[in-house]
Structures are given as C-alpha cells and as structure tokens.
Specification:
rod-shaped
C-alpha cells in the first residue's frame, strides 16, 4: 500500500508542477501580449498626434495666406480692416487653443 501511495503522491506532485509551469507560461504570454498592445496603442497615439500637429500647422498657414489675400483684395475702409483683424485674431486664438490641447494627449501615453 505504501508503494501505491508513493506512486499517487509522486503523480500528484508531477501534475501540480506541470500545472504550475503551464500557468507560468500563460502568465508570461499575457504579459507579453499586454506589452505589445501598449506599444501599439502608444505608436498609434504618437502618429495621430503628429498628424494633428501637421494639420494644425497646415491650417494655420492656409489661414494666414487666405487672410493676406483677403486684406489685399478688399477696399481699405477702417471698418473692414477692423473686422478682418478681429477675424484673424479669433482664428489665431483657435489655433493656439488647439496647440494647448496637445499636452492632454501626451499625458495619456
């Protein structure tokens, strides 16, 4: 009976060790997958942030060009100049506000 008990005990220990090793492998695999997912999400966020910067800069340049064209093509009444200057200031403050939003996204990474 002792021999049978030893055999059962040994089989139980081997099974326990096999399960422990399997759990270790699964845990390592999950950690690696989580790291890959994090790196992927981070690269997507960086790409989108770069794209946002590029579009913001292009929009700013286009607005300046448009405002320059408008100012050159309009009669020089002071009322028109004031209205255009106010429009230009508002558009510039929107541009600056969009740049201030940027650190919120950087903090998420």
């Amino acid at each position: 009976m002792t021999k049978e008990k030893d055999t059962v005990t040994e089989a139980t220990e081997e099974l326990t060790e096999s399960l422990r090793e399997a759990n270790r492998v699964i845990a390592d695999s999950l950690v690696a997958a989580q790291e890959r997912n994090w790196k992927f999400a981070q690269s997507v966020m960086e790409h989108e942030l770069d794209l946002f910067k590029s579009h913001t800069e292009s929009t700013r340049a286009l607005m300046e060009k448009l405002m320059g064209s408008l100012i050159k093509g309009l009669p020089c009444s002071s009322q028109w100049q004031k209205a255009l200057l106010q429009l230009k200031r508002r558009m510039y403050s929107l541009y600056r506000a969009s740049l201030r939003m940027e650190p919120r996204y950087l903090g998420a990474m």
